[in-house]
Design goal:
The chain is an all-alpha fold. The chain contains three helices and no strands. The mean pLDDT is 91.
């Protein structure tokens, strides 16, 4: 259904920031900010894991160097 639209560097950066958001959220924040940081961290990790960013699809951004195959 969706094609990958994140390159390797993009996915790596998302994974690092996702882990950092979770660490900061659970060690330095409390209340609503802890929930926000946890949600942001989980979304970043999920998009890094699957290689698809729904916002990129809407904005037609593609950082993946491999183009999808064209079926004839």
């Amino acid at each position: 259904m969706f094609t990958k639209n994140e390159g390797l560097l993009d996915r790596g950066i998302r994974a690092v920031f996702g882990v950092l958001a979770l660490i900061v959220g659970f060690t330095m924040l409390s209340g609503v900010w802890q929930i926000v940081a946890g949600a942001v961290g989980l979304v970043l990790l999920a998009t890094a894991a699957i290689g698809i960013c729904p916002l990129y699809s809407v904005l037609r951004i593609n950082t993946c160097p491999v183009k999808p195959e064209v079926r004839g």
